[in-house]
Amino acid sequence: MPISNYAPRIKGNSSNILDENDEIWGVFDDINMMLLKIYFTDHGNLSCRLFLVPKLTYSYYLKMKQINVQTQQKSKPTIICCEYPEKAQDNGYVFFKYLIKNYADNFNIYYLISDNSKDIKNLNGYERNLIQYKSVEHIKLFEKADLIIHSHTPNYALPFFTNFLENKVKEKNKLFLQHGVIASKDVSHIYGRKPTNEFTNLFVVSSEREKKEVFEKYNYPLEDIILTGLPRFDTIMENKGLKDTVKNSVLIMPTWRKGLDQYSEKAFKETDFYKIYASLIHNKDLIDLITRFDYTVKLYLHKNLQKFSYLFEGKFINVMFEGEKTVSELLKESSLLITDYSSVGFDFALMEKKVLYYRPPELISEEMIEENNNVLPGNIIDNEKKLIENMNSFDMDKIYKNKLKDIYKYNDSNACNRIALEVFKILNRN
């Protein structure tokens, strides 16, 4: 039982003390091993991750570590596409489908997914090209993969994390599709190239502005930054200017705040984040809009905060839970988006639909201090009253339509095609 709420911080006295001995294994049950992976955080504090690993996968891993397993001569390169292990609805998923449709004869193409994923239904018809997360087949295919295509970190292509496997990732060709357009958050500490961490070989961007930012702040040479647009933009551009499938539909979609996902329910309800959004969805003027003009208002929390979604349920607000609909579906059916810093604002604006950035002073993040507000395709609003006033109209202002070129260079549905040409280059296939 817990004896204290105090979280100790244990500093490492040597940066390389865990270079070799980072794994502690034990039997968990009849079919699983337990891995305790010890590591130091970026701040030098001792930490660990726990993984349940099937015994068959563990046995193959030991063989993989002991000898350099020789793979058979391959007739064509092997590509693994991945997002989060439980996700199949973002750029990795879209590009995977494109590759299967157009280049199945050129590559062995696989998508990595966990067997308890709510997104498996999105992969119906692709069963022959799926890898079950943590399976023996997973670790075997990773071993012989020629290219990892990732929308977050390439380490999600691994069945579990160890120094040995993470070093194997560094040896692979990698293509980073991104999760969204870089503008509102400085994520160079995550996605930046470091001497000891080859995060990716090719970095996908969507505009000259973004390319310049990745070059100057993320430590990538220009030749490794490809200006193609994100795969999901192909679908977005096809839906540009189309009518919303749900009339007068408002989508509230804030991004997460670091550390909030670790809070207890009681502690979360004491945060400014909870209080501000709980206040908004119970605002009398908002409820008046909903009842008088037949608005549909949906709230969708970031995946890291989904466990708190039920705390916001109310009579006039539809709280959306992960797995009910994809983010893409929610965006397409909505008339107005309210976010704070999420990159979905750019996706929504590219469909020429109105975005509002709701940023009360209590929720301003230190990560946003250097943000270029001139790039944002919508008004920044700092209080509840002004926000609701701006919800009276669903029309996107012309000034923001004129900014779309700074978000996405192209006005077409060919992002996947442009990325595929770069895949040919990285694999030296014409």
Describe the structure.
This protein is an alpha/beta fold and 430 residues long. It has 3 domains: 23-66, no CATH class; 78-229 and 412-426, Rossmann fold; 239-407, Rossmann fold (3-Layer(aba) Sandwich). The chain has helices spanning 55-66, 91-103, 136-144, 163-171, 188-191, 208-217, 233-238, 265-268, 272-281, 284-293, 327-333, 344-350, 384-389, 398-401, 404-407, 415-426, and strands at residues 23-27, 32-40, 46-54, 78-82, 108-113, 130-132, 147-150, 173-176, 202-205, 225-227, 249-252, 296-300, 317-320, 336-339, 354-358, 378-381. The strands form 3 sheets. The protein has a 7-stranded parallel β-sheet with strand order 6-5-4-7-8-9-10, with helices on both faces. Strands 13-12-11-14-15-16 form a 6-stranded parallel β-sheet. A 3-stranded antiparallel β-sheet has the order 1-2-3. α12 links the parallel β14 and β15. The radius of gyration is 23 Å and the shape is globular. The chain starts with 22 loop residues before the first strand and ends with a helix. The mean pLDDT is 89.
Low-confidence stretches: none
Distance between the termini: 61 Å
By CATH reckoning, the class of the largest domain would read Alpha Beta
Cα-atom radius of gyration: 23 Å
The number of domains: 3
Helix and strand arrangement:
Elements: E1 23-27, E2 32-40, E3 46-54, H1 55-66, E4 78-82, H2 91-103, E5 108-113, E6 130-132, H3 136-144, E7 147-150, H4 163-171, E8 173-176, H5 188-191, E9 202-205, H6 208-217, E10 225-227, H7 233-238, E11 249-252, H8 265-268, H9 272-281, H10 284-293, E12 296-300, E13 317-320, H11 327-333, E14 336-339, H12 344-350, E15 354-358, E16 378-381, H13 384-389, H14 398-401, H15 404-407, H16 415-426
Parallel strand pairs: 4-5, 4-7, 5-6, 7-8, 8-9, 9-10, 11-12, 11-14, 12-13, 14-15, 15-16
Antiparallel strand pairs: 1-2, 2-3
